[in-house]
Specification:
This protein is mostly helical. Helices cover 46% and strands 9% of the residues.
């Protein structure tokens, strides 16, 4: 079971490097489950630029999620 990072204390304890968009502290990716969730959420709600940045951050941190083109 993963921590709830939707807000509050758990989210504030994350390092900036644990976010796909660290400057905005959006799309936390501290583990594989959250990385998958970040990809799903940015696909639903993110701009094309955000989608590209989140995909790149996730693939860099979790090579197993690299999308084969």
């Amino acid at each position: 079971m993963t921590k709830d990072l939707s807000g509050g204390k758990n989210r504030k304890n994350l390092k900036k490097s644990s976010f796909a968009l660290p400057d905005q502290e959006k799309y936390p990716i501290p583990d594989l489950e959250h990385a998958r969730n970040a990809l799903a959420r940015v696909a639903q709600h993110g701009t094309a630029a955000e989608q590209k940045k989140v995909r790149a951050a996730v693939e860099k941190k979790y090579r197993s999620l690299k999308k084969d083109d």
